[in-house]
Write a structure and sequence with these properties.
Radius of gyration: 19 Å
Distance between the termini: 49 Å
Oligomer: single chain
CATH topology of the largest domain: Tetracycline Repressor, domain 2
CATH superfamily of the largest domain: Tetracycline Repressor, domain 2
Structural class: mainly alpha
Helix content: over 70%
Largest sheet: none
CATH architecture of the largest domain: Orthogonal Bundle
Strand content: under 5%
Shape: elongated
Number of strands: 0
CATH class of the largest domain: Mainly Alpha
Length: about 200
């Protein structure tokens, strides 16, 4: 255990440093040496754990996805009914973004952040998480509480408006705290997916 923990700490330090450097300089302009200086890791350690700057960016992206989706799925799983589940998704999304703005900006910059050789793994991981999320909603689909739609529509209907608000907030185009819009956006998502939005389930 003692041998594993320093390795985990070193990798985490490198990823934290990389996020700070990417945020300050941009991904393209950042260098391995920038990350080395910020993390105080050796070049050998960086290459051992991640290989290249692109490997660091991909690992950071995967770490961000893991944290975001784990929270989203856990909160949805805890919901007692379909309406609370949808609200939990919107609330978790906006709270996560506002709590991790630098990491959220990095995830939103996917085309710049993820090199082609890592894109398939990122897509597969995201698809797996989204399938898990939809599986949690299946009982309410079967009961006729939620509408059955093509799977490709659920993401935009559930998180599209919240995602758009988050993007504008992260870029500074809006100053409203996204968390104040949770009720409004959760209500809109519920009305778009509920078979009968006016009915109390």
């Amino acid at each position: 255990m003692n041998a594993i923990k320093p390795t985990i700490d070193r990798k985490s330090a490198i990823l934290s440093a990389a996020l700070a450097v990417f945020s300050e300089k941009g991904i393209a302009a950042a260098t391995i040496d920038d990350i080395r200086q910020r993390s105080q890791a050796s070049v050998g350690s960086i290459y051992h754990h991640f290989g290249t700057k692109e490997g660091i960016a991909a690992a950071l992206f995967m770490q961000g996805l893991d944290d975001y989706w784990t929270q989203l799925i856990e909160r949805t799983r805890e919901a007692a009914d379909a309406e609370r589940a949808i609200r939990a998704m919107i609330e978790t999304h906006l709270v996560w973004v506002t709590s991790h703005p630098e990491l959220a900006r990095f995830l939103f910059s996917r085309r710049q952040a993820v090199a082609p050789e890592h894109d398939h793994a990122v897509r597969a991981q995201t698809a797996g998480y989204f399938k898990t999320l939809l599986d949690l909603l299946k009982p309410w689909f079967k009961q006729g509480i939620l509408r059955r739609l093509p799977a490709e529509l659920y993401g935009p209907l559930l998180l599209g408006p919240a995602q758009e608000l988050a993007r504008h907030w992260l870029s500074g185009r809006v100053t409203i705290d996204p968390r104040v819009a949770i009720d409004e956006l959760a209500g809109a998502a519920w009305r778009s997916l509920a078979a009968d939005p006016s009915r109390s389930w």
